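A note on notation is needed here, since sequence and fold are reported together in a single record. The reader may check this reading against the record printed directly beneath this paragraph.
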Amino acid sequence: MWFMIWMSFAVLLKKNCYKNENDLIVHPAHITVADGRCRLAATVEIETPGVVFSAMGSSKQELWIDWPADYFVPETPDGGPFLLICLTVAMCLNERLVSNTSVSQCLLINVLEAIEIYKNDFPDLCEVISVETKTHQNERSNENRVGSFYSGGVDSLYNIAEHFRLNEKYGVTNVSDLWLIQGMDIKLNDDALWSKTKFLLESQVAEYKQLRYVDVRTNARSIHDSFVGWEELGFSVILGGIAKCFSPIVNTALIGSYGKYKDILPHSSSPLVDPMWSCDQQNVRHFSCRANRLEKIQTIANFAPQLLKNLRVCYLNPEGSYNCGQCEKCLRTQMQLMLCGCLDKCDTFDKDLTPDSLNKLKLPWARKNQYTWDFWSDIRAACQDAGYAAFERQIRKQLRRNKFIKIRKRAKMYFRKMQ
């Protein structure tokens, strides 16, 4: 009995020894307007000795978000955007998150819930932390506006097309505001790709007069890439933070889903976590896990086919290409477009798609990317149903080849950890 008591005390002592008593501090936020753009910024500071932001080589870095001033200029700074963007960074560092600018009362309560979700989904990356800030309450705008993050990809185009369908059937409010971001998959220093993308995506929605296109820039990616990475744990909190900038004027924000409910895995952006970025002025929705990619493309083709013309899906962008046409995501999207009978509606893939195009298909081996395998399983089944026998055989072959690679790489990682 005394042995068990001593062991319990030793475990508790060990936990307390490693508890981080330092803070991740978000200093007071401020608003500036210059050169036709509005910027919301705050200095972020890490207290843990020896830990620095890699972009600056310092424990301090300014975090900023800017957009055209003629779109919206806030009356007072809001700490909500910075609280969200820094949330998972603080959890990875196991630092208390301190915001010196007040945040929405509703948002704070939701953030406390999100902390538990992230800890449950990413126990090896995130720690439960406390939050220190003041709160406020704001009245919700009477305007009924729906904002959606707009990358030119299938998920963001579906958000627009599906609301067209829902409006036609139920009278649901259409998407009104589109937010395209530089600083995430398009890096801040890639001005050539940014200009090309912005021009093509703006032109493709020009005929829809009810849609307002807004280009947003932020350095939030560098804050996350200093530690775990923006795709790993930064994707949702960055989008949620940007949406909060516009909560006084846009009372619904959509973050595109990546799969159906049956395929959802722990992810930085999920139907469980994204709604936690709602506040008293704005509802945030993970939209929508009701449809898979094939169903989404079919909805776009039926209700907003013009949006497919400049479809953009590539994250690799070798040599500044809009869509490389050869990476896994480009090949997957071309297959889905072909199966929906609308590959010819898209002008942004240069090469003809044949079964041989899939010869070098590379699928991710990490468990966190299992949803990519689900996409290809759905595509293989659709090829079988549609009579595309040559494509079905090739996909089956590539799934089998990549499965061996996945097993080998996971085994190597396991034995490396055991050493």
